[in-house]
Amino acid sequence: MDSYGIAGAVTAMAQERTMYAVSITMLKKTLDMQGDTALTLIAGVTQAPVAQNLPAHLGNNIDVTA
């Protein structure tokens, strides 16, 4: 292998290493953004209001026939 071939191989390996590092960094940023979005969604959920003074039989059965 001549010196140009070795230099080309070293350059290719360096480029692969750089692309790998960029990919990992982008993956981490994406995961951070998804985590922030999930926290925002969870914080936005409000508790359902509790129905007061309803008969005890309401809400126990579901009609599944169409």
UniProtKB/TrEMBL annotation:
Species name: Oxalicibacterium faecigallinarum
Pfam families: YjfB_motility
Recorded superkingdom: Bacteria
InterPro entries: YjfB_motility
Listed name of the protein: Motility protein
